[in-house]
Amino acid sequence: MNKRYLILILALALCVAQTAAKNLKYVFLFIGDGMGMAQVDGTEMFLGESDGIIGTRCLCFTQFPVATMVTTHSATNSVTDSAAGGTAIACGAKTANHLIGMAADTTTVLASIAERAKRSGCRVGIVTSVSIDHATPAAFYAHQPDRDMYYEIGCQLPLSGFDFFAGAGFLDPYGKDAKEAGKSVFDLMDEHGYTLCLGLDEYEDAQTDGKVVVLSKDPQAKAITSAIDRRPGDMTLRQMTEAAVETLARGGDKGFFLMVEGGKIDWSCHSNDAGAVFREVQDLDSAVQVAYDFYLRHPDETAIIVTADHETGGLALGDGPYVLGLKAYAGQRLSVEQLSARLTDLRNNSATTPDWETVKDILRAELGFWDTVGLTADEEDMLKDEYHELFVAHHDNEEETLYATNAHFAAVAIRLLDSKAHVNWASTGHSAGYVPLFAIGRGTEAFSHKTDNTQIAPTLARLAGYAE
Question: What's the confidence (pLDDT) of residue 468?
């Protein structure tokens, strides 16, 4: 072989080896809480039917080159909760349901990938659409034997030293539900050098290069506004993700790790509100688009993983007949929670009993009934019966799910919408179904086979070179 060509081949081989050995600099981990296979597939088919086609309109993350399925069981049950599921993803180890960042023995502390990234000199961010002390985000910075220890979890946030947090608020920042309450979480954040911003306007005004926590304008809010209920000015998951990337990209050449949770997918699944679920999956995808745009600018240094901690609701796309009608959700403008509030407020704040036609106009405007979703006489009579119970008899019939208590009338209306779409639910809780994993970026082919949720953190840590 010509000596010159041999030298060229060796030089190319050395270049490839150096590239392969180079660690990832930017790691994005997106968790769609409660987002099973059907939630993703249903969203794409809903978008397709809304466009007038039988098939799918692809989300950004479903077009990533790596796609597989993930098992989610906890150490103690085939059906995990978000604490054990979040801990498995964050720490790479199974634990018992309800535990945060701890092994099933309730004493061994597990290091999360976020903590390992921080020890390696990377900047770290945690973003969620629910409270920042909720199970999934907590699994990345806290270590507690019970996910409901919100004050204790919140107190561990400023101790993490992570560079950026964003979410709705804290559920127990003053320790009113704690056995021993000391300083408030807000006091501790101040002591540890965090700038607290209530809303994205305050974040923009702060222009800080230091550690920051961005919350909604109500710092004790349980969640940001659902995507389907959103109004101008409401904080969004995409905006929080943009703020996180902006903050994390400012400091150092070691790169960053960012976890973003679409927590309200799970909440909508617990309420069996498929129309709201599909909008929440779209909302997560919009946040993923921020990461993908970043990836396009840094393709050799960036990895994006999109997965879920578990499936919620046992969502079934089809209820017997070989037909699906997801376009029925195109006319839905409110979540079941907001529809419940709207109907209840109308009853409580009206000087006289609203007539059926007034209530019918609300159902028409907010759910598309009669205009875009045809109802039979029997179906309308069923809604009239609910109208009579709530508005005439003033019976406060309610349905309680994990995160909401809704007027029975609203729940029945959403179930009727499901029946028109031929969608069904197994429960209002979690299931043991597979969840998806989508990935793009150098080294993510390591995820190109069926895997367990405990393999996500160690694989990413290896690719990024995070310290043990």
Answer: 81
The label of the residue with tokens 């996180």 reads 244
pLDDT at residue 149 is higher than 60:
yes
Q: What long-range pairs does 417-421 form, CB within 8 A, spacing at least 24?
A: 417/274, 417/275, 417/328, 417/329, 417/332, 417/367, 417/369, 417/373, 418/272, 418/274, 419/319, 420/325, 420/328, 420/373, 420/374, 420/375, 421/274, 421/324, 421/325, 421/326, 421/327, 421/328, 421/329
| pLDDT tens-digit series, residues 224-276 | 999 999 999 999 999 999 999 999 999 768 999 999 999 999 999 999 999 99
Please compute the mean of the pLDDT values over residues 305-318 and round it to a whole number. Answer: 98
Give the torsion through C-alpha atoms of 89, 90, 95, 97, to 10 deg: -80
**pTM of the predicted model as reported, rounded to 2 decimal places:** 0.94
Tokens found for residue 370: 């009669």
Give the domains, in start order, of the chain with CATH numbers.
Answer: 23-316+429-464 (3.40.720.10), 333-421 (no CATH)
Q: Across the strands, what pairs with 305? A: 29, 439
Closest CA to 276 of 288, 287, 267: 267
The pair of structure tokens assigned to 131 is 């409270």
